[in-house]
Amino acid sequence: MVPAVFVFGDSLVDVGNNNHLKLSLAKANFRHNGIDFPGKKPTGRFSNGKNAADFLAEKVGLPPSPPYLSLISGSNKNNASSFLTGVSFASGGAGIFDGTDQLYRQSLPLSKQVEYYSKVHDSLVKQLGSSAAQNLLRKSLFAVAIGSNDVFGYSGSSDLGKGRTPQQYVDQMASSLEGYLKRLYGYDARKFVMVGLGPIGCCPSQRNKNKTEECSDETNRLSFLYNQALMAMLRSLQSELKDVSYSYYDTYSVMQNFIQKPTSYGFTEVKAACCGLGNLNAKVACLPISKYCPSRRDHLFWDLYHPTEAAARMFLDDAFDGPPQHTFPVNVRQMIAQ
């Protein structure tokens, strides 16, 4: 279907880059993460099993895009052949803006992810020659799932949101992201899978802050406003760069459906995390000392921020083949066929 999948983003799609960041506190390379992953081992994915990036690769018949930092460490040093079916640059704690990772000490922000991709691009050109590399990359998928940490940063303790209204902040997020997409375009990216933010005010970490255990309306509003700004930016980008195609996925409304009509989707628990401790299992992250639920399939959330493997699979199936009310202007399968 496509020759390669390149992944940019945060912990929703990190497949192990943060394992290689010595200072980072945003890590998932310990149990109980990975208890449903092949081999039942923690890999650095913030999940009980696979995440959406794994399912995207599966859909197009490719192996999961490996973490870039594992490909350039030790004996692997810049072995260009390992870049041929794609690479993941995603990193837990990363944002569109630099500095969203203050809480976690270290991540690869989007600026760094794009810089690393430019090195992969150059390696492929060196290995294949420029026209073959261009041909491979222009047919490949570039998946981008980022923005949650920027939204958390606005209302959090960082200085990111200082002096900006919510609308100004999300407009700045979208325009910064546009700059990075244009840089990727300059390095032969043409087909973009763009993931909108979910109602992240409904994740267990946010519900736990409200005595009523309701979602954080402020955080959800910011996510919603950002999605509007992102869609407007993508439309204008496509009219400016005629050979760009994209599929935007409306995570927000799909996740709201899961929360409002859980049993229709096979969920029995949409508020509490499966793995953690304390109220909603959201007082303490998913650590080796935490308890975890026996049935992950019926939980929307694995830990205080991230979906279970079951939820990630449903999101990705929908993004790939879903209806026009969730994927626009086309779903991923239709975009590949264009």
TrEMBL record:
Transmembrane segments: none annotated. Keywords: Hydrolase, Lipid degradation, Lipid metabolism. InterPro entries: GDSL (IPR001087), GDSL_Est/Lipase (IPR051058), SGNH_hydro_sf (IPR036514), SGNH_plant_lipase-like (IPR035669). The keyword Lipid metabolism applies. Signal peptide: none annotated. Pfam families: Lipase_GDSL (PF00657). Gene3D superfamilies: SGNH hydrolase. Belongs to the 'GDSL' lipolytic enzyme family. This is GDSL esterase/lipase At5g55050-like. It comes from Punica granatum (Pomegranate).
